[in-house]
Amino acid sequence: MTLLVGEILARATRGRPLLKDDLVRLLEISDETEYQALFQAAYEVKREHVGPVVYFRGLIEISNICQKDCLYCGIRKSNQKVPRFRLSVDDIVEAARWAHTNRYGSLVLQGGEIQDDKHTQFITETLQQLHAATGGELAVTLSLGEQSRDVLRRWHQAGAHRYLLRLETSRQDLYRQYHPEDHLWAPRLQCLEDLRTEGYQVGTGVMIGLPGQTCEDLADDLLYIRDLDVDMIGMGPFIPHGDTPLAHHLPTYDKAAHLNLGLKMLACARLVLPDANMAATTALQALSDTGREMGLIAGANIVMPNVTDPKHRRAYQLYDGKPSLDENSEQSRLGLEKRISSIGESIGYGLWGNSPRFDKRVS
Ligand code: 5AD
């Protein structure tokens, strides 16, 4: 029996759980009317649960030095072509001050994965200094890869409230295919569990449109993320990076198809986890100039404007075609303000913007 999109969406907007077959049907949509109906339903659910408010997370790319060697990632350890950098504590505090002055309620510190004491200490000190410089008024998210429970505890104590760690895919054989042998799926999952135990607001997500990944896989990913019961979702389309092994094995890359699939995933994620925070990621914008607005219309409620000094941005490229390489923080803020008001939404300036999901859990 073929499932009717209208019926699936009617169930979803009434808060009834979606099944795998429902999600596969939604992800396989190619008809324009069905496509619009999906976004409309996701937007309705978003307005009801998180409202038409976009929260800014000032993104600071702190370092592109990475001990991991993921086959798709531009800053993988083996990529000799990329000049490596690490911001100083002062650089990071300065970017945090700018975000604070401009009433961003929250920051994301993202960087390559480094597991050693010096790095642990560096991040601890950075957290302490940035809170001191901004009166403890900013919510801070870390996105620094897999870490031991002890390290996560120390960073949490030093003022990290949230953590993003993508599962990349819930299909373990696909994970094995795109990571070296010593980089396993199970410890990553363990780390997500440790983050929750240590009291973080936890975010995860997957890459969308990896070669070999099907709509069934993506439906499984969504159900897996739902069962992990996370507070935040960060996911975006896979985009090849020319200096990675995966790009060399790729026949062709269809930008429009990846953008569409990415947007359908966001819409489905909003239906599956109505009260989570979900980012319209930069990868969407890399595929289309208006990709992030499309993401907001598809159900996302978070954007992460880059507040890193533009002189370092070029070296932090996970995929080709990263947008806004030369734009400074002020230009990017003004551009986003315009884009967000063009779709009738407002910006939650000065607010932490926890997900209603998290607030409900701790209340
Ligand atoms: N395309 C899209 N996303 C990528 N990431 C890394 N490389 C790519 C790529 N080529 C994502 C991964 C990682 C996050 C920081 O960036 O999902 O978790």
What does the model show?
This protein is of the alpha/beta class and 363 residues long. It has helices at residues 5-13, 20-27, 32-49, 89-101, 117-133, 149-157, 172-178, 185-197, 215-228, 245-248, 255-272, 282-287, 291-297, 310-313, 329-342, 356-362, and strands spanning 53-56, 58-63, 106-111, 139-143, 162-164, 201-204, 207-208, 232-233, 236-237, 277-278, 302-303, 346-347. The chain has a single domain (43-362), classed as Alpha-Beta Barrel (TIM Barrel). The chain contains 16 helices and twelve strands. A seven-stranded parallel beta sheet has the order 2-3-4-5-6-8-10. A three-stranded parallel beta sheet has the order 11-1-12, covered by helices on one side. Helix 2 (20-27) packs across helix 9 (215-228), helix 3 crosses helix 11 (255-272) and helix 9 (215-228) packs parallel to helix 11. The longest helix has 18 residues, at 32-49. It is globular, with a radius of gyration of 19 Å. It starts with a helix and ends with a helix. The mean pLDDT is 95. Bound molecules: 5'-deoxyadenosine. The site of 5'-deoxyadenosine (5AD) has 12 residues, from loops.
